[in-house]
Design goal:
Structural class: mainly alpha
Largest sheet: none
């Protein structure tokens, strides 16, 4: 935030905006929800004060997309719905299917947090349909992965695996994986492992969890590390390994405590 303020004082609103987004992401990585929210609000203020012509569509999309991800992870339903409404307004005004698709992802997440699975699945499918018409593979994968989550909670396991495999196939066609793409790879494999767990397939669930842990664990963000450790703990519990289950559960709690999550 100090760097962002430096650029703001110097009149460099573009760099100030970008650094507030970086500050928000860093604050949330450390578990500071209030500081993350302040940084997103400051970035939005810069954008609104300067006028939309000062920023690219990509900048505005990143602001509200990242803000919605933060709201979802922090379980802030009303904040999530607010970002969805803002994106929906911008997308509807310009008939921009990318903005509309991202707004639908945010709205579907809000439905999920409210446990309204039928409505959420309907909205996330609309998001996938809209995003299929764009060239933004990153956001499309995000929508497909959220669709997999809805399918899993509705016990639609074949559909869950199909969505996860679609994302893994998309990732295989890419030359290299950024941290964001590694996270999506994790979520896809985690979704498949969750099906094995739900079906009581202890052997496959444990194998999947161990592959997650031995693979990209060190490159995952803190939240995905927590999910990996919890899942490994669940898989060991299903395989009747109580001590190992407790071990990984404690390791996950240690990270969660640091994040105050």
């Amino acid at each position: 935030a100090i760097i962002a303020q430096h650029y703001r004082v110097g009149g460099d609103i573009i760099n100030a905006f970008q650094w507030f987004l970086k500050s928000a992401d860093h604050a949330w990585t450390l578990g500071d929800q209030e500081e993350a929210l302040r940084a997103y609000q400051q970035a939005e203020k810069i954008y609104k004060d300067a006028g939309e012509d000062a920023f690219k569509d990509e900048d505005i999309l990143n602001l509200y997309f990242e803000w919605s991800e933060f709201a979802y992870e922090a379980s802030q339903v009303e904040m999530l719905e607010e970002t969805a409404i803002k994106l929906q307004y911008l997308g509807g005004r310009e008939n921009n299917l990318l903005f509309i698709g991202v707004s639908q992802i945010a709205l579907a997440k809000a439905f999920f947090l409210r446990s309204e699975l039928d409505d959420g699945l309907e909205i996330i499918q609309k998001a996938v349909d809209n995003l299929e018409t764009t060239d933004n593979q990153m956001v499309l994968m995000q929508a497909i992965l959220h669709r997999a989550v809805f399918h899993w909670w509705k016990l639609q396991y074949e559909e869950t695996i199909a969505s996860a495999k679609r994302v893994l196939e998309m990732l295989q066609s890419m030359d290299s994986l950024s941290p964001d793409l590694i996270s999506k790879k994790f979520v896809a494999r985690h979704a498949i492992g969750s099906v094995y767990y739900a079906q009581g397939n202890a052997k496959k669930a444990l194998e999947n969890a161990q592959e997650l842990y031995k693979g990209d664990f060190q490159q995952l963000n803190p939240f995905d590390r927590i999910r990996t450790l919890y899942f490994l703990g669940y898989a060991h519990a299903l395989s009747a390994h109580p001590e190992k289950s407790k071990h990984y559960g404690v390791k996950a709690l240690e990270i969660a405590d640091i994040l105050n999550n």
